[in-house]
Amino acid sequence: MRPVLRLVAAWALVGIPLAWGVWQVVRRSLDLFR
Amino acid sequence: MPLAQAADPTTESPVMSLLSILDRERSIADEHYSRWLVPPAALAIHLSIGQAYAFSVFNLPLSQRIGVTHSAPADWKLSTIGWVFSIAIVFLGLSAALFGPWLERAGPRKAMFVSALCFGGGFEVAALGVATHQFWLLLLGYGVLGGVGLGLGYISPVTTLIRWFPDRPGMATGMAIMGFGGGAMIASPLSTTLMAHFRSATGPGVVQTFVTLGLLYFCFMMFGVFTIRIPRPERRPIGWMTAEHPGALLAPAGVTANRAIRTPQFWLLWVVLCVNVTAGIGVLGQASPMIQEMFPGAITATAAAGFVGLLSLANMAGRFIWSSLSDYIGRKAVYATFFLLGAALYAAVPSTGKIGSVVLFVAGYAVIMSMYGGGFATIPAYLRDMFGTLQVGAIHGRLLTAWSTAGILGPVLVNYIREYEIGHGVAKADAYTTTMHIMAGLLIVGFICNLLVRPVDARNAVAEEPSSSAATA
Fold it and tell me: Which domains does chain B carry?
């Protein structure tokens, strides 16, 4: 795999679940200000 | 057997041959390897083991294993289940302290593999314990095996990152340790979804969820295991062991772990970490009831859950932001900020409850939580500054016993002082004020200890050979 592609794939593999987890918390946190 | 035949790899058993891929020599980076692949490898481990902070989502379902919709008399009590998490954190500290020197010898890939085996395997043993309703198996699986996985998984990638990013150790370790904070954010909704999927008339779905999580985390951690590399011996990136950043307190060469624990600097940093974690952990455990009792009628249970979520976000962001900042202003200055600003906020925030300002209350605690996370993330770089990279993993492992201590001290301080106050007629909303003032006092102790930190005496250091960076990474 090309080095740049490998870097993008590696960061996506950890970044996507992390972003999903953060979004779940942000969604729940909005209840505080409703 | 002739020597040539003994050295012939074709004579090795297939299993040994397969396992040799975990050897330190097989994980040395080639010249095309980008060091920016190390942070995602580290994140894969920390995002997985960070699940530990979300274990509480299993408390209620575990207490209804037999009753399914309610707790039957034969079901485990919530107070009994609470021991599983406590044992896991104790074994995290113990394994990090005990296996640190082995990690230095075996290399990060082998240590991360063992961590994945223990953490993933721990879930499977725990699943067996739940399925057969044997509490000791649950404790052995998640508490002991899982705890060892946590300890090894926590220190291995951090040590490797410090060696790959000598020019920005704070930022690099901040990225990984941020993953530990983020792991709970993934695990909590994932576990809830899985339990809802597996729930049936005969059980709350915990067994199947444990089996699935064990396999998922093992596979995810394998990505980290096979992506991690150690720097080549001759590699000396920009900024290698030079005091070019303000406030840096660099040891002239490496200090061994056994020698480090005999220096006052190690114990001063132990107190610094312990105090910072004690103050934060006490608030984190009580966040939901605290905001509801301080703003009675204004904050519902749902809004309080949102507050807890916001604090975990601040905790995670602080891990990256504060540790990255430490590369510019120095580790000592960052901890001085934690303690001074923290003490001021702990002393002032209870008054925001009295004036009824939810926004100021939330903002104050968000900053406090960011500094709690920042304390975890900045300590490995502080250790590198003090003791060099020679055995920084083993030293970090031993320092994590401060975390285990704070894990007991923080909640005890908050809970018992609060109960004492309420028992003596203090209103619930005011009962936190004394606790917060005691936390502010503790932070001042931390400030003094941090102020006393001086560079390590050169006599403690051993000469570091140019090639030892790879040998000990």
Answer: 34-227 (1.20.1250.20), 257-472 (1.20.1250.20)
